[in-house]
Design brief:
Elements (H helix, E strand, L loop, with lengths): L1 H18 L16 H7 L2 H32 L6 H13 L2 H12 L5 H7 L16 H26 L3 H9 L4 H12 L1 H16 L3 H6 L11 H11 L3 H32 L1
Helix pairs in contact: 1-13, 2-13, 3-7, 3-10, 4-7, 5-7, 7-10, 10-13, 12-13
């Protein structure tokens, strides 16, 4: 396991970073050009659009997935009937791959036989909803599909965190006459910080490497309206046969992942020292 971590993860990552400073094309070569690949990367409109899309998608997906996941977890925590069935239904989309999710939502949002067709069949002939072909709405389509697929896992993690809260906390809040919403807001949420931190790391990692959902749902279109960094990396490395540019873009993605993981690891280490 140590050898795998050193060679596959650390070794290959360092190899990628080193070659991001080269002029590699079809094959990797140690022809160093300094920061030329990064300068070209950040001056490319397609990369800038992909970063903007990832920022919009990431912020919205993170906030909405956490909010929806916590709300569903609270509802499931009310000792409702058929809880196992509802939990299975909520978690089911997470069992699907992003490719399948993208295809399903492509059908749902298709104007010829999807949502627009159904609403028009109900008598609203003027209804128009075609986000997959609208540059201003295509991110909403990605958000809907991504949240539908990922909210189930967040719900289950949040539910496990809620079930871990000592029952005496609830008894004390009832004795003091504290409303349930205030108990959740001012008592339960602060106690669930580690759970939220775990969810944030999992969701953020999925956001940064977003690729297959985009390919299946929009293919980066219309135009480059739904481009994301991972698709940029893949297209330049395997489509345009420009390894140096692909390595530079993937190095920026690696830096973003480390910016999330390192603070989380330090947070966990700090908690263990205080325990």
């Amino acid at each position: 396991m140590i050898l795998t971590a050193l060679v596959v993860f650390i070794g290959c990552s360092l190899w990628t970073v080193v070659h991001s400073f080269t002029n590699s094309r079809l094959l990797p070569r140690l022809d160093f050009v300094g920061l030329a690949q990064y300068e070209r990367l950040w001056s490319t409109p397609r990369w800038q659009v992909s970063i903007e899309n990832l920022a919009i998608y990431g912020i919205c997906a993170l906030v909405l997935t956490l909010a929806i996941g916590f709300l569903l977890a609270v509802l499931l925590d009310q000792k409702i009937r058929f809880e196992d069935g509802f939990r299975t239904i909520i978690l089911f989309p997470y069992a699907l791959s992003f490719i399948v999710t993208g295809v399903v939502w492509q059908w749902i949002l298709n104007p010829d036989f999807g949502l627009q067709h159904i609403v028009r069949g109900m008598g609203f002939s003027g209804f128009s909803f075609d986000p997959l072909n609208d540059p201003n709405l295509v991110i909403l389509a990605l958000l809907a599909a991504g949240i539908w697929q990922g909210a189930g896992l967040t719900t289950v993690i949040m539910l496990a965190g809620l079930r871990g809260i000592d029952e005496d906390v609830w008894k004390a809040s009832r004795v003091d006459g504290i409303p349930a919403w205030k108990t959740y807001l001012f008592i339960i949420l602060p106690m669930m910080k580690p759970v939220f931190a775990t969810c944030v790391v999992l969701i953020s990692a999925g956001i940064i490497k977003l690729y297959d959902l985009v390919v299946a749902l929009t293919r980066g279109g219309p135009g480059i309206a739904s481009e994301v960094p991972a698709k940029y990396v893949y297209d330049y490395m395997f489509g345009n046969q420009n390894l140096g540019q692909g390595f530079a873009a993937s190095t920026m993605m690696l830096a973003a992942v480390l910016a999330i993981i390192i603070p989380f690891a330090l947070f966990r280490m700090g908690r263990k020292r205080h325990v």
